[in-house]
Amino acid sequence: MQVDDQASALAQRSSSVSSVGVSRPRPFPIIGEAAPGPRCGHTLTTITGPDGDVNKAKLVLFGGATALEGSTAKNPDGTPSSGSPGPAASGIRLAGATNDVHIFDIRTGTWVKITPMGEPPSPRAAHAAAAVGNMVVVQGGIGPAGLASEDLHVLDFTDMERPRWHRVLVQGAGPSARYAHTLSLVANRFLVAMGGNDGKSTLGDAWALDTSEKPYQWRKITDAGEMPCPRMYATAAARSDGLLLLCGGRDVHGTPLADAFGFARHRDGRWEWHAAPGSMPAGRYQHGAVFVGTRLHISGGAVGGSRMVDESTSTVMLDTSGGAWITPAPGTLAGEDVTRRCRHAVTSVGPFVFIYGGLKGSQLLDDLLLADDAGGAELTICDPRAPAWSQYLNSVHGSASAAQMLAEAAAAEAAVAAAVASRSNSLGGSP
Q1: Is the pLDDT of residue 300 over 90?
Q2: pLDDT tens, 398-415?
Q3: Which of 241, 306, 314, 343 is most buried by a 10 A CB count?
Q4: What is the CA angle 238-280-244, rounded to 5?
Q5: Using CA atoms, how far apart are residues 215 and 396, in angstroms rounded to an integer?
Q6: Do the Cβ atoms of 355 and 25 come closer than 8 Å?
């Protein structure tokens, strides 16, 4: 049967590496005292407003490790922890793992820490998370007590003012307890979990759960084309049209991988892998990857021996519509690239790519980075007059350009308000 999905189309395109320019992340101001603080191995997930409204989008940061081996673990109130460090996970001190939740409001550019109702997941790092509608699904990870259970935990934002944790038990076989795996929502319907490590070996299995069918059931995906080799610390990002792209990772020998695989579902229900053409400019693991349109933004990553990827390739993109890897244009690198890090978390909203925290050498990071794939041309989802956004725009575009953006944003807002008022008056005056 002829393959009728996007994965085969991606595999058939020629691949090349060009340097026409990459949207490079810049530091975004952190205002207030509710920021998550230094951590790595956490997740950052986008939830939109009602009916998918990105103008009301928020970022949900969950968990992560707040201390490393050789450092003092901290309790949530900042005091030293007296607990046992537990088993080490590649340098993370698991006594410093947390289960706290922080929310970043896109429009205002501010953080707030929340305490959802319900029973939260255990403290953990190296877990995986994905957004399903107005819910964040968390799976796996490792914490002070070892591997987290294979159950799914759901943070429900149906009521944005009163978010609540739920625990979802899935009957039958499914992904075993693991960490350093991926979890993605494909075609707005299927949760797909892949790879990772179960504490004994690096895994190469893939599972899919149809969120539209109850009772929920995991289905193992086998005999699905060019299956990727087992790997951990890879990334998996879903394109809006249903294509999932698995990228990089570390194989069973500890080797950083530079390959990419497209994964999609046929109309007859079969899943199939296809190897993407070419390879990343540099193999890596513990990196970040997220789609903006058809462009896969890849940031940071480790190459082994506590080393990060080189500055010249720490930020790259894969244009899946043309099959081309894109690297920074020559002459655009000025000093050390802030994306040279690993174990960070990344997500996107509209044209914006957000990166939080991570690990650089022996330093846990607590910064927020922002890359604008629209070059400042699309500011509707934020308030450029908010202090954080105003500072960011000034630092990136200069005060004159930022002032022009503010004026344009004010004019656009006034036009919308006038249109709403006009429509309201028209309706009010009708018989």
Answers
A1: yes
A2: 754 545 555 555 555 556
A3: 343
A4: 15
A5: 49
A6: yes
Nearest-CA neighbor of 388 among 24, 30, 26? 30
**What are the tokens at 205?**
């299995």
Place of tokens 């914006």: 352
Summarize pLDDT for 324-370 with one digit per residue, the tens: 888 877 655 555 579 999 999 999 999 999 999 999 988 999 999 99
This prediction's pTM: 0.86
Give me the percent of the chain exceeding a pLDDT of 70: 80
* Three-class SS of the chain: CCCCCHHHHHHHCCCEEECCCCCCCEEECCCCCCCCCCCECCEEEEECCHHHCHHHCEEEEEEEECCECCCCCECCCCCECCCCCCCCECCECHHHEEEEEEEEECCCCEEEEECCECCCCCCEECCEEEEECCEEEEECCEECCEECCCCEEEEECCCCCCCEEEEECCCCCCCCCCECCEEEEECCCEEEEEEEECCCCEEEEEEEEECCCCCCCEEECCCCECCCCCCECCEEEECCCCCEEEECCECCCCCEECCEEEEEECCCCCEEEEECCCCCCCCEECCEEEEECCEEEEECCEEECCEECCHHHCEEEEECCCCEEECCCCCCCCCCCCCCCECCEEEEECCEEEEEEEEECCEEEEEEEEEECCCCCCCCCCCCCCHHHHHHHHHHHCHHHHHHHHHHHHHHHHHHHHHHHHHHHHHHHCC
Is the distance from CB of 126 to CB of 92 less than 8 angstroms? Answer: yes
- The pLDDT tens digits of the residues spanning 72-99 come to 444 444 444 433 333 334 467 788 899 9
Sign of CA dihedral 124, 127, 132, 134: positive
Sheet of 202-210: strand order equals: 182-186, 190-197, 202-210, 218-220
Residue corresponding to tokens 């109850």: 214
Is residue 234 within 8 A of residue 249, CB to CB? The reply is: yes
β-pair type (16-18, 324-326): parallel
